[in-house]
Amino acid sequence: xxxxxxxxxxxxxxxxxxxxxxxxxxxxxxxxxxxxxxxxxxxxxxxxxxxxxxxxxxxxxxxxxxxxxxxxxxxxxxxxxxxxxxxxxxxxxxxxxxxxxxxxxxxxxxxxxxxxxxxxxxxxxxxxxxxxxxxxxxxxxxxxxxx
Length: 147
Hints:
Number of domains: 1
Helix content: under 10%
Number of strands: 9
Radius of gyration: 16 Å
């Protein structure tokens, strides 16, 4: 993954990130967030994956059900945020991918391999966001009272 700072003002930074063939976007975003000390960010992206694992949160079971996609797909939209969880940046991403026949699949992005590229624009906020475990959902959700 390559990155470039493209804007900076009043505590807000904007980066362009370009992932290459076989890069793992979740690992890449996580490592980038750690290296840049990102505590509150949001991002969008487009590109393609050679494979991906999406997930759907099953409310009744309070767990994610994986949706494997084992073919080349277009990343029609990637959107997410980065917030601190237990003091470390945590990536939360959703994606919609399109198959060759025009059908689309979407969900929480668990894992993927880029092919040929993934272009992400990431914007850091000057405030910090923190995630806290929510007992009702069993998920680490952004806690606005902690900001």
